[in-house]
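Lab notebook, bench 4. Still working through the backlog of constructs that have no structural model yet. Next entry is a single chain of 301 residues. Request: give me the C-alpha cells for it.
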Amino acid sequence: MSAARTTKATLAVEGCEITLSNPDKLLWPKDGITKLVYAQKLVALSPFLLRYCHDRYLTTIRYPDGVSGKSFYQKNCPSPKPDFVQTAPVDQIDYVHLNSLPTLLWLGNMACLEFHASFERIANPDYPSEWILDLDPSRQEEPRIMEAASLVGELLDKLHIRSVPKTSGATGVQIIVPVERKFTFDRLRSLGQFIGEYLARAYPKLFTVERLVKNRGDLIYVDYLQHYRGKTIAAPYTPRAREGAPVSTPLTWEEVRRGCHPKDFHLLNIEERLKEKGDLLATSVPPQDLGSVIAFVESKG
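Model written out:
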C-alpha cells in the first residue's frame, strides 16, 4: 500500500481501489495519528480484527472530525457503497459485513474509529461461539479493575472453565470463554447470572449486579445481560475513540495479575505486541463444552 500526502490518495488493495480523502487529517490529534497513519494501522490489524468481525453484524462509531469532534453510531451500510462491500440484512437494517481489508479501509476512510460486533453470527445465529462477562466500572478511573478481573478468572478456573481476559479499550475488562456452539444465549445467560450473583455476595465491596447505574455507587458491574442476540461487543483489536488511541486487546492472566492498565495497549504499539504474542484469543483457549456446569447451575435454579 502506498499513498502520497495530498488531499486525496488512492490505495490499491486486493484488486480494489479505495480513495482516502484528506489523508493528513488528524483523527487522534494529541497522538499525531492522521487518517493515513490510521489506514496503515488498520492494515496491520486487519488479520486479527477481521477474524472477530467476519460473520457478525457490525456497528461502527464514526468521528468525521476526529476524536475531539462529534460522533454517531452507524448500523446501516453507508450509501453509495463500492461493489466489493458486502452487506448482511436483518430486522430491516442492512449491516456491513466486515469480511475484507478493502471494506475495512473503506470504513476507515469514513472515520469509522470503532468496530462493534454482534454476539450472534450471521450464519446460525442461535448458538454463540463464546460466552462473555463484561466487567463495567462505575468510575471513570477504576484502579481495581484488574483485581476484579483476576478474581473472576480464578472463580472460572475453579469451575474448570478456561477464559481469556480482554480490555474493552475504554475502562472495562471483558472475560471471554470460547465455547462449543451448542448452547443457546439463554442457557449461557443463566450461567452468567449465577457467576455474577456469587461474586456480588462474595465481594460486596467490589462487585454488583445492580442494573441501575445510579444505584451502583463505586462498584464494578458484572454485566451478564450484555451477552445476547441483538447486542454487541467492542470487537477484539478495535481501536477506541479516546485519547491515547487505545485498542481492545486480549491479555494473559499474568498481565492481569501484574495490574496492567487498559491504556497500555494502543494503536502506536499494538503491532509490536501482536508480533511478540500473536492473537491470544485465538491460540490460548479452545472451544469448551460447558454442559456439565450449565446443568449444575440450572439444577440450582
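Notes after review: Confidence is low (pLDDT under 50) at residues 1-5. Residues 199 and 274 are 32 Å apart (CA to CA). Flag for follow-up if needed.
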